[in-house]
Amino acid sequence: MLTRLFSAATVLAIVTLASAPEAQAAPISPQIIAQSAGTPQIDDFSVGPVDRLIPGTELVFTLAGTPGAKASLTITGVATNLPMSEVEPGIYEGRYTIRNKDKLTESTAVRANLQQGKRVNSVRLAQPLIASDNEGTTGNRNSGSAGIERFTVEPVARIEPGSELVFSLDGTPGGRATFSIAGVARDIPMSELDPGIYEGRYTVRNQDNFRSSPSVTASLQVDGRTSRTRLAQPLISSSGSSQATLPLVVLSPTNNSQVSSGPVEVKGRSAPNTTVNVQVRAVASLAGLLGINQDIYNQSVQADSQGNFNFTFRPQLATPGTRYEVSLSASKGELTKDQKLVLIQK
Q1: Does CATH place domain 33-124 in 2.60.40.10?
Q2: For residue 99, with 0-12 CB atoms within 10 Å meaning exposed, 13-18 middle and 19 or more buried, which class applies?
Q3: What pLDDT, in 10s, does the model give residues 31-70?
Q4: Whole-number pLDDT of residue 288
Q5: Bridge pairing between strands 264-270 and 275-286
Q6: What is residue 235's DSSP assignment?
């Protein structure tokens, strides 16, 4: 009798569950599923690329995944199960300083493990340890290979909610450029303002937890080839330096580049609505006897609401080899910043 009652109750429960409205079954996010199963989730594993793998160089690895777990990394043939510290919830960092006896190449395999209880998840580093060699890329910009010449940031006085970080990348034109801030944001797209000149912006949010010196990397992809580099300057300007807090960057043309005999347009960027005083001086010698040294342009221009400005000057003497020394001085309130540019007549 008890068996029949139990069977009937079981059947009734199954029928009730089967006939329940589908809307009552709330969707479960993949992250919750992974955590409930005890398997930690790995979202990303990256390294700050370095110029050379030589003794004394520090490699900084960052892993993003399930918070509150135990993370470690292994560099094949070099080090095993190096602990990674959880610098903020779900963000783990591991550092390794290369020793004299270490044998490392840019393709040395590196793996990271994330353990939660008895469950372990593992991932292999997908990027090289060495930043791409950017020397000589200017002359090969049409070769189809990706090259990064420079990656910079306009330092800010403080990193606080609302602060805008502006990153600039010079490299092969026509590519796809992104930048990542370790523990904060990843693969933020950069816009190509001019051929080979990329810009990316990030506004600090309330929930962001910036470390004192976060690793910032950039990548440039052209025709399936990718170049990576790491930011070599701090995000915060030096205390007491007024010039560091007022940006002034020449976007085009590049320094020491050649210009034609026609009008020359110079594009740059500073802080929004900044006044930029421009002076252009022509320096040349005719037949090695007569020297020319005169101002050919002297004007003030105003940056727009995005900080962009431009001006055009016309060479008065189309003499090959003439140097045009461009002096720029930005001012806004009590802040100033100077910049120089040299152009050569074809």
Answers
A1: yes
A2: exposed
A3: 333 334 568 888 778 887 777 888 888 888 888 888 899 9
A4: 52
A5: unpaired
A6: S
